[in-house]
Design goal:
Layout lengths: L2 E5 L1 H8 L8 H11 L3 E4 L10 H10 L4 E5 L3 H10 L3 E4 L19 H13 L3 E6 L3 H9 L4 E5 L1 H6 L4 H17 L3 E5 L7 H6 L6 E4 L1 H10 L1 H20 L1
Parallel strand pairs: 1-2, 1-8, 2-3, 3-4, 4-5, 5-6, 6-7, 7-8
Bound molecules: 1-deoxy-D-xylulose-5-phosphate (DXP) and the ligand NCC(=O)COP(=O)(O)O.
Length: 245
């Protein structure tokens, strides 16, 4: 079954807006785990407008499922990850001022850089993942530089879903099969939501984990966090049943 990692960036955004420690990210993370989250993700960006670098240590103390830290591998980010050793680090090719992630790595052009950074994380015993588009060359490149997993950037799928769901998912299914064939672990995320998740996950053979934040935290405003996590878990169970059927 695909695991659900809850991205708490948007919870941190609310916290930061008043300069105090409320909502408290550690409490929200432990509550999410109790409600059924199978992982906690944060993506600290250089502007620290939502998750901050010092959240990594605080979350590492309490998260018992899987802590996944996403970000661009600049020196400060690498130091924070190496000193806190989360279960997984997901490297994302974001520019410093980027509003949100909008593309995967060019794992061929950046091969030397990625190889060196990933080797450091591997030596520290941290599972590594590279954010990629559904492109066989980039997946092969991720394997060659030593990543354990890839995370598919699912923004384009989500944006096309309403107009043409079959067309939207097709390149991801193909890329997923390819990743499976060459032995890469497979994660996915960005703009997944209650409408598109079951369809997506049911067509991704071997998908191991999704990280979901923006839509999930927005849904929690209406349904509450416990119900919302149950609803996302239920989408993933339905997807598994569809794959078996
Ligand atoms: C890599 C990725 O897709 C997520 O980490 C996403 O970027 C988080 O989104 P925000 O930082 O916009 O909340
Ligand atoms: N890696 C994707 C992620 O963590 C959450 O992305 P989104 O659901 O906030 O778009």
């Amino acid at each position: 079954m695909v695991r659900l990692s809850v991205n708490l960036n948007k919870v941190a955004l609310i916290r930061n807006s008043r300069g105090a420690d409320y909502p408290n990210l550690v409490k929200v993370a432990t509550d999410c785990e109790q409600f059924g989250a199978q992982g906690i993700t944060i993506h600290p960006r250089p502007d620290q407008r939502h998750a901050r670098y010092d959240d990594v240590a605080a979350l590492k103390e309490v998260v018992t499922t899987e802590l996944n830290i996403e970000g661009y591998p600049a020196e400060h980010f690498n130091q924070i990850v190496l000193s806190n050793r989360p279960h997984q680090v997901t490297l994302v090719p974001d520019e410093p001022g980027q509003l949100t992630s909008d593309h995967g790595w060019d794992t061929v052009a950046k091969a030397d850089f990625l190889k060196e950074v990933l080797a450091g994380f591997r030596e520290a015993g941290i599972r590594t993942s590279l954010f990629v588009d559904p492109d066989e060359r980039m997946i092969e490149g991720a394997k060659e530089v030593g990543a354990d997993r890839i995370e598919f950037y699912t923004g384009p799928f989500a944006h096309q879903f309403a107009a043409d769901r079959a067309g939207a998912v097709a390149p991801f299914t193909r890329a997923c099969r390819f990743a499976q064939e060459i032995g890469m672990g497979i994660n996915a995320g960005h703009d997944l939501n209650l409408d598109n998740l079951t369809y997506f996950a049911s067509r991704m053979p071997g998908l191991q984990e999704v990280s979901i934040g923006h839509a999930l935290v927005s849904d929690a405003l209406y349904y509450g966090m416990a119900n919302t996590i149950a609803m996302y878990r239920s989408c993933l169970s339905n997807a598994a049943a569809l794959q078996e059927g």
